[in-house]
Design brief:
By secondary structure, the chain is of the alpha+beta class. The protein has one domain: Phosphorylase Kinase, domain 1, CATH 3.30.200. 15% of the residues lie in helices and 28% in strands. A five-stranded mixed barrel has the order 1-2-3-5-4. The radius of gyration is 17 Å and the shape is elongated.
Amino acid sequence: AVIWQDPAALAREDKGAPAAPFRFDREETGGTSPKVVVTDANGVTWFVKFGFEAKPETFASRIVRSAGYFAPICYVVTDGQIQGIPAGKLKRADKAIDETTGRFSQARFAREVEFVKDASWTLDEPTIKA
């Protein structure tokens, strides 16, 4: 399995920041932080996470990517609006998004990372041993 590549190649994968307006797709209920999935003006799907870790998680992702390792492409959106949220649809995310206006602040937007499905590796593989 490939766990590193030239950082310049990873930089080319970044197609830019999320573009408003954002359309609500669904709420994700896993994990400990409220999350929703939205589609931006360019048709890109973003996983939006709210909470105190939005900024440090984005920073850490950029450091890891700059070293050539795979990590999600992340952006912090300081404030914005999500359209098309059905009334009463939000559960955990209702604390981060105003359900009547769709307004939010301090969110981490991450693009879906495409990995090879059904592939696995272990630390015993010769390609990653020192």
